[in-house]
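Re: Re: ligand-bound prediction request (bumping)

Still looking for help on this. To restate: I need the protein modeled with coenzyme A bound, output as structure tokens. Inputs repeated here so nobody has to scroll up.
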Amino acid sequence: MGPAVAARGRLATRAGVFGNPLSFRESFRRPGASTPCRHPSRSHDWQMRPPEEFHTGRLRLRPVKRTDAAEIFRYAGEAGPTLFMPFERHRDIAESAAFAERCEDCWKSGSAFPWALIETSSKAFAGVLELRLSPPKADFGYILGESFWGHGLASEAASVVVAWAIAQPAIFRVWATCHPDNAASAAVLRKAGLRYEATLANWESRPQLGEIAGPSDCYALAKPKR
Ligand SMILES: CC(C)(COP(=O)(O)OP(=O)(O)OC[C@H]1O[C@@H](n2cnc3c(N)ncnc32)[C@H](O)[C@@H]1OP(=O)(O)O)[C@@H](O)C(=O)NCCC(=O)NCCS
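Reply:
Sorry for the wait, this slipped through. Here it is.
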């Protein structure tokens, strides 16, 4: 039994909350989606793929690998980084291993493109940024370990990926959402060139906040009409 299956079996036995017949965790589970992927993408229908690597001033972006589980657990198991995230905080490394495995599968199928953000100078694993291509639009999400916050790294990574995505002829809109209280994430999106569009009601489940259908601010960069 793989770690993901083992985790699922254990979780399904947990008591439900809010009168939900599913466990709290199961009520947040969506098929085909896990950390930090939110929406199963259809990019594979178009065979469009981003570069496997990007290099910025301070970062190397490369595909998340199975062997990254311990690095992923370092942020996915922590309260700070996962507060606003739509997945439940990882309780053991097997959950991070399942996520890392899913990342490799996503690259193979083209359903999503999760990059590890590696600090070039220290070779440290700072976090993950994931792009989903669904022409005519693309969306992305990101998470960094707390010790990497506040140095402009998320903005640097988001900017290079957004620039690549919006430059694709088939992509007309790059978008992302964040919790209305997630000021740091909103700042990252603005620095990557996106603009606030609207607050979406009942958009996202956030286990750490106890929200089954919480609001999200939607930010987007749309190509000007020709
Ligand atoms: C959101 C997150 C990725 C930001 O990463 P980061 O590398 O610290 O972001 P940056 O350093 O690029 O900061 C971007 C801007 O946010 C600002 N910022 C940082 N924390 C802030 C806060 N608490 N309130 C307001 N602005 C803040 C920074 O000042 C910076 O703007 P500046 O360059 O003009 O000063 C990081 O905090 C994180 O991983 N959080 C947990 C996961 C998460 O929330 N992901 C997003 C889900 S939508």
